[in-house]
Specification:
11 helices, five-stranded mixed sheet, elongated, alpha/beta
């Protein structure tokens, strides 16, 4: 049942191979257990007998403090509590700093073929590295339509209806020294409160240009013209230019956002037409976005200049 509830999982075998853990209990089959939670648990309260609100699917970490506390526990308490932290939902237990495996824990774990692992890593370092590893492996994923580029170091997702010229604009941006991540389709992941985008393997490094066909960006422009992945810092939505539309001219409107995997990404709506240089407009929009992030606002600058102009005009009128 649990197997159907989660889209992604990491096996204990993967963790052992990546972190080079020493297996103390359980046979090879015990490593086929898996985790679906990008977090770990130091079971201080559980060892004391308090289990309320505990998340049973986390990997258990036994550090120096837990090892010292276990030495003070009676054998009866150990036999009562170890089965609860090595049950069927717990993926594995890891002992840090090469601390000794308590005999009772070994007995309990062996009776259920439960994997107890060991490492010489510091507890804090293992926890940080483990959470980072699991966060990336278990990150929520989705697929979006659009073209992702790194423009002057800013990850920009170009979106818009088919025929808006996203790929052609990407080609011009690449010619200007910018970097392609993915064209037409972008796989996105939510990692560490950021959205990371990358290209599906089948279209990686390829760009579709109407009238020309598929071009290989790396072969045409070199390896520096593409990259495997990028943060998505900004979404630029290309829309058809409408002469009757009321477009913002000062840049003082409230920033729009696009929700991607529950993260709000700043969004600019950019009208395009045959007479506008879309690539230049996008580069300018990115530069202005970076200035805004640094605290500079062009609209505020215009208002300040206008205010100074009016003050000077009033002073001239007063003198006259």
């Amino acid at each position: 049942m649990l197997d159907e509830m989660y889209d992604k999982k990491v096996s204990i075998r993967e963790l052992v191979d990546f972190f080079k853990f020493e297996r103390l209990t359980g046979d090879d089959k015990s490593l086929d257990r898996w985790t679906v939670v990008p977090d770990v648990n130091r079971p201080g309260f559980e060892l004391c007998g308090f289990y309320k609100m505990a998340e049973p699917r986390r990997i258990v970490i036994i550090g120096n403090k837990e090892s010292e506390f276990i030495r003070t526990m009676s054998e009866a308490d150990q036999r009562a509590r170890f089965p609860l932290i090595t049950d069927g939902l717990t993926p594995a237990l890891i002992i840090t700093k090469n601390n000794a495996l308590p005999p009772v824990l070994k007995e309990v774990a062996e009776s259920t073929n439960f994997p107890v692992l060991r490492t010489n890593m510091e507890t804090y370092r293992l926890m940080a590295d483990m959470i980072t590893y699991l966060d990336e492996k278990l990150a929520p994923e989705d697929t979006m339509s659009g073209t992702l580029m790194s423009i002057r170091g800013v990850g920009v997702l170009l979106t818009g209806e088919s025929g808006m010229g996203k790929s052609e604009t990407a080609l011009e941006l690449i010619r200007q020294g910018n970097v392609l991540v993915s064209d037409d389709r972008v796989d996105v992941m939510h990692i560490h409160n950021h959205i990371i985008g990358h290209a599906p393997d089948i279209i990686k490094g390829l760009l579709e240009i109407r009238g020309i066909g598929i071009i290989d960006v790396e072969k045409m422009f070199g390896a520096m013209a593409m990259t495997d992945s990028s943060h998505i810092n900004l979404v630029i939505k290309l829309v058809p230019f409408e002469s009757e539309a009321d477009y913002n001219r000062l840049g003082d409107e409230t920033m729009r956002y696009t929700r991607i995997l529950n993260v709000l990404v700043p969004t600019i709506v950019l009208p395009v037409s045959a007479g506008r240089n879309t690539a230049a407009l996008i580069e300018s929009a990115v530069s202005n976005f970076r200035l805004a992030e640094a605290g500079f606002n062009s609209a505020d600058e215009v208002r300040e200049r206008f205010k100074e102009f009016m003050q000077e005009a009033n002073e001239r009128e007063g003198k006259a």
